[in-house]
Amino acid sequence: MRNCGGVRLYWLILSICSLALADISSAAMSAEKLAASRFISLAPNITETVAYFGGLQKLAAVTNDCDYPDAVKNIPKVGKYTYPDLEKIIALQPAVVLLESTADPRFKNKLRDLHIDYREYNFTSLRNYFAELRRLSADLDLDAADKIEDLNKLWRKNYPALNKKTAIIVWQNPPIAAGRDTFLADFFASLGCQNIISRTARYPELSPEQLYRADIIINLSGRPWTLTSGQQIVEPETDLYLRLSPRLIQARGEMRDLLANVSGGWSADRRAAALRGYRWLRLVMALLVGAGLALSGLLYQSMLSNPLAEPYLLGVSSGAAVGALSGLLFNCPPFFTAVLGALLTLALVYLLARKQGKIDNSGLILSGVMINAFCGALIMLSVFFAGDKVNSLMFWLMGDLGTGIWPQAWLIGAVLLVTALFAGWQSGKIELLSVGDEQAESLGVEVNRLKTFLLFLVSALTAVIVASAGIIGFVGLIIPHIVKMLFGERLGLNIFLTLFCGAVFLALSDLAARTVLPEIILPVGIITALLGVPFFVLVYKKAAGF
After folding, report:
1. d(CA 399, CA 522)
2. Are 286 and 401 in contact (CB under 8 A)?
């Protein structure tokens, strides 16, 4: 029997090696056929520029993201722009790999280790753009001097100022704008636009409060504008304006005419009313989310008899993240898919934790840890295939109160009210759960029924919060402990104190997130961690007497 097993293992290894050798041989044959074209372009704007120079025949391969002009579609592919397939690149034996200066340093080191030559080009700024064009044409041995000079003439044409404040939006949910030191900011400044982001470099997230300062919204997100109303919205071709290429320079006159014909705007009174409405919504969201997370943490700790329990322990947040990302990938409303993902995750954890018709605390925690790990793998897999849609998820994972709407606030408020009233009504029985299930049953508490109802109610509250505001950590862990240290262990009183302290804490954290840096709004989850952990340590040391 052992010999049979060894023979099977031998043939399995031999088959795998044969397939690998066949794949390498196939790639090597492709390399021989393309011996005359020895360059590989990994950036869409470099590929487009080479096409403008008339040198596509020199490209042996490009990435999947290279989509212009149509002739590029017939060139072999070597993976995604962000994750190039190194094995295919090696098999093609390129003379030079063409990279953007922003390419992953680890990938550059790998090319260097493999003795594969590469060239970097800074196509992130217009300041040295034409020098980079000349260098690229020289590296590919292309005579493109006349074409580069034609572009330079188009760029040198001056336009008078428009005297209109503009916001250049490259992503809408959350709103991310082009700031200082970006080619988009330089491009629109050359057309006479005044960018509302003047001091912040690169691509900061903006709040609607900042967006209301703009007279014109240049929407390059690829989706209809929905965040604010009242401004003039300009929605040009997204693909053309999100990469620095010859087409962008050629479209300069057309964009200037479009901006010059934009008229109207809104009055100071209307702008002030819009700002007041947004600020009230953000404050209400901060109060409700903070109160809900703090109450959820308190009830989880009492129900599970675990001082480290918090709203995300049972995998609700991970399930919501999977649901939200699924909604983004399949163009469904992320709020509803996030709630559905959170509730499905909770139901799975509940089924895994049941033991002989009863809910086991250890089983709940272990099931939550396993589901969290599984959902984490699904999130990473989805992020890999999400492309540019991953921006929304990453900001959502760090917590964001700025994209909420009034219906979400009312929903959170309704579920929070029901949870708080039920917890206050059953506070005596919930408090008995902390001494153990058997003791609580001996005192007349229907433990299984109470736990089941409380588990789904609190998790539903966590689900709608996570779906609306993302993952905001530490509030549900820290606030209940601080309340207990300051006011004792009486659950009935602590429920309402926890609601108040959680609401105030998150409102202050959000205020810090919006004001600590000029023109930049930090994710509120970062602030809750930075403020919450040191404060918790100080209160704990004071309560412990050292």
Report:
1. 9
2. yes
